[in-house]
Design goal:
Largest sheet: 8 strands, parallel, barrel
Helix content: 10-25%
Strand order of the largest sheet: 11-12-15-16-17-18-19-20
Number of helices: 15
CATH superfamily of one domain: Golgi alpha-mannosidase II
Shape: elongated
CATH topology of one domain: Immunoglobulin-like
Strand content: 15-25%
Radius of gyration: 30 Å
CATH architecture of one domain: Sandwich
CATH class of one domain: Mainly Beta
Distance between the termini: 111 Å
């Protein structure tokens, strides 16, 4: 509350600096009896605390009153300064640090005001100040969920990008809620998407930097001094990978009018609601590399302790040993590009880099010498840490763009298309950019299905970039760091337009969740260590049990034995055989023999457009030919081994329910064509043999 007319500076005048030596306490503001403790970092010789109160004069104009409290000499420990400030009411008051006369924000501030409207150019002239208020919050027993890495389905989002686009409300078929929904681009709006996340099968969200940062970009080399002469470039740092306040959620990501926003409460409400719905939240924190290990540890601990986040993705730095060995964080998920060592006990570290993306995109586009990469990436699941796999991420092409473009198209960024990586490892299916050619469109859909199967059938933790499940495109921009517009904002209208992609993604996620062989707790050993007759995972080529690794090979079969993945009721999972043919020619795969009483059935076939590549559970067709299968070009086929009795029961049910003579005729016609083609090939071969033998028989 602001003081009324005639009450100018009432609260600020009542503040008293305590004479007692405060000692050391938690950085930032801490409530105490009769007032607050303030602990901050400042390198200057003369350091003071400037406290501000907004006041309304007799003419109704807003004015500001300031009081300055020098930090006691005895309160200094290195660069840390401490003070105890006595007062009954700190509501509405803000503060900043004066270091040798220069005002600067408290790097340990918990909540800031002054930049409540996203993208306002006035930010460069408006100082960022911290709030004193530390309101209590009822977590109702909430705790981080601690979902194991092998059971996670990650979904990467941006606070604004998720809901800013017109039509995002009600896009999930809930039009009745669209009118009264949360303000777009806010933490509260993320919570409104919880039903959608659950429908898709997501278990965990990865949120791009939610902390306070300056999105108004200054020229390179500018120091960001709000009172300096540096002027904005006209661009906005949409992603948030820039120096920021590591201990405060971003004010402009909160709902409400300026001056009334409460990002602290809103972010806590988001985490609490996510947890109530069984969803984890992992946040990104960007570090410049100049921060001390102590500050990094303190920041990560703070978000875990204060906001109950399930994990932190460290961006800008490699794995920090201080965090790796921190006992307070031994059960908190920590993502980093690399970790030098594994840790004993519960897996809480995870490797997060483009390794999977590069190798598997090369596989997808049909590059040679990728079979060993497929085996490595598909099987990788280290004992001491997790691995995060993805086919697309923010810094690069979306999945749709990865099958639509081979070259970056970043002209919109204003850098003459010189920014962003030129190494995309993609194939445009014959045409660069959007195309009306049916053949191109069909191939792009098929390649997306292939990519989703490659991702979700690999042992590591899969990450899906938001929007990839319904074919969102950024128009070939692989570096949209400054695009706070429809280039980056998800187009939820595509959920209807590309419903087939969404349904396939949802089905593959559900399939992975149900079948433990695709997300084991430990990395497969490629051994029959249970002596059950089959290894946990085995590899196959044209001939069963004979994989081919020549550099020109583009096809591989992987068999999974369900005996090595016990369900909750201790029953084994099913047998599976996944045939990867990334060649532009069809290849016949020999199918490994199943245990007695079981037959191979089709679970997925990315070449089957009529079924969208999916064979629903209970409707998987049994293969007439159990020894081999011709896999079409650029196709992945997943076979499931089922008992004959179960197949017969399903066949009886289908016989009663399905009466589709047209489909049967199509199948018969297709079989007849295949039969004629084989007979024709046989005649040609016999003619060649006859012509070859003819001269010998005639004595020539």
């Amino acid at each position: 509350m602001k003081p009324g007319i005639g009450e100018i500076g009432v609260k600020i005048e009542k503040l008293i600096m305590s004479e007692e030596e405060p000692g050391y306490f938690q950085p930032g503001v801490t409530k105490t009896e009769g007032g607050v403790y303030i602990c901050t970092e400042a390198a200057g010789e003369e350091v003071s605390l400037a406290v501000y109160e907004q006041e309304q004069g007799p003419d109704g104009e807003e004015k500001e009153k300031r009081r300055v409290f020098p930090f006691p000499k005895g309160s200094r420990m290195g660069r840390m300064r401490c003070m105890k400030l006595l007062g009954e009411d700190f509501s509405g008051l803000t503060y900043a640090v004066l270091s040798d006369g220069k005002e600067m924000p408290d790097t340990f501030g918990r909540s800031f005001t002054g930049h409540g409207t996203w993208g306002e150019l006035s930010h460069v002239d408006t100082p960022l100040r911290s709030r004193f208020e530390l309101e209590s919050f009822d977590w109702e027993g909430d705790r981080p969920l601690q979902i194991p890495y092998e059971d996670m389905i990650l979904y990467r989002i941006h606070t604004r990008g998720l809901t800013m686009r017109a039509g995002s409300k009600g896009a999930d078929g809930k039009e009745e809620e669209a009118e009264n929904g949360a303000e777009p681009g806010t933490f509260r709006a993320i919570a409104e998407k919880i039903p959608y996340f659950k429908e898709l099968g997501i278990t965990s969200l990865e949120l791009m930097p939610p902390n306070e940062f300056e999105e108004v970009m200054l020229p390179d080399g500018a120091d960001g001094n709000p009172y300096g002469v540096d002027r904005p470039t006209g661009k906005l740092n949409y992603w948030g990978y820039t120096p920021g306040m590591l201990f405060a959620p971003k004010e402009s990501y909160a709902s409400g009018a300026c001056g009334e926003k409460n990002p602290v409460r809103e972010f806590k409400e988001l985490v609490k609601e996510l947890h109530q719905n069984g969803l984890e939240l992992v946040i990104e924190l960007y570090f410049t590399g100049k921060e001390s290990a102590a500050v990094i540890s303190e920041a990560v601990r703070f978000w875990v302790r204060e906001y109950h986040v399930d994990g932190v993705h460290l961006v800008g730095i490699a794995g920090c040993p201080a965090l790796r060995d921190d006992p307070w964080l031994s059960e908190t998920k920590l993502f980093a590009a690399f970790w030098e060592e594994e840790t004993p006990g519960r897996r809480h570290l995870a490797e997060y880099n483009d390794g999977f993306l590069v190798d598997m995109r090369r596989l997808l586009k049909g590059d040679e010498d990728q079979m060993n990469s497929l085996i490595f990436r598909n099987r990788r699941n280290p004992k001491g840490y997790g691995v995060i796999n993805y086919m697309a991420n923010t810094n690069g092409f979306t999945l749709m763009d990865a099958v639509t473009y081979e070259m970056k198209h970043n002209e919109q960024n204003g850098e003459n298309n010189q920014d962003g990586s030129s190494w995309n490892y993609t194939w445009n299916c014959g045409v660069e950019g959007p195309s009306r050619k049916k053949k191109v469109a069909v191939m792009r859909r098929k390649q997306i299905r292939n990519a989703l199967l490659i991702l979700f059938l690999s042992q590591g933790t899969p990450l899906l970039l938001s929007g990839d499940e319904f074919g969102f495109s950024k128009g070939g921009n692989n570096n949209s760091y400054c695009q706070d517009n429809e280039t980056s904002w998800l187009d939820w209208g595509l959920l209807k337009t590309n419903r087939d992609i969404f349904e396939f993604a949802k089905q593959v996620i559900a399939f992975r969740k149900k079948h433990l062989v695709f997300h084991m707790a430990q990395e497969p050993k490629v051994m029959d260590y249970l002596a059950c007759g089959h290894p946990d995972v085995s590899y196959h080529g044209v001939k069963a049990w004979c994989p081919e690794f020549e550099n020109f090979r583009r096809q591989l079969g992987i068999m999974y034995c369900g005996e090595y993945a016990k369900k909750a009721d201790n029953t084994p999972d099913d047998y599976f055989f996944t045939a990867y043919n990334m060649h532009w020619e069809p290849h016949e795969f020999a199918l490994p023999k199943l245990p007695k009483g079981m037959k191979w059935h089709l679970a997925f076939n990315t070449d089957d457009r009529e079924r969208n590549g999916i064979y629903e559970e209970g409707e998987e067709p049994c293969l007439e030919q159990q020894k081999q299968f011709l896999v079409p070009a650029r196709t992945i086929v997943v076979f499931i081994g089922l008992k004959e009795r179960a197949e017969e029961n399903r066949g009886e049910k289908r016989g009663k329910k399905e009466k589709q003579p047209a489909d049967k005729e199509k199948k018969r016609a297709k079989k007849d064509q295949e039969k004629k083609a084989k007979e024709k090939d046989g005649k040609k071969k016999s003619e060649k043999k006859a012509s070859a033998k003819g001269p010998e028989q005639s004595g020539e």
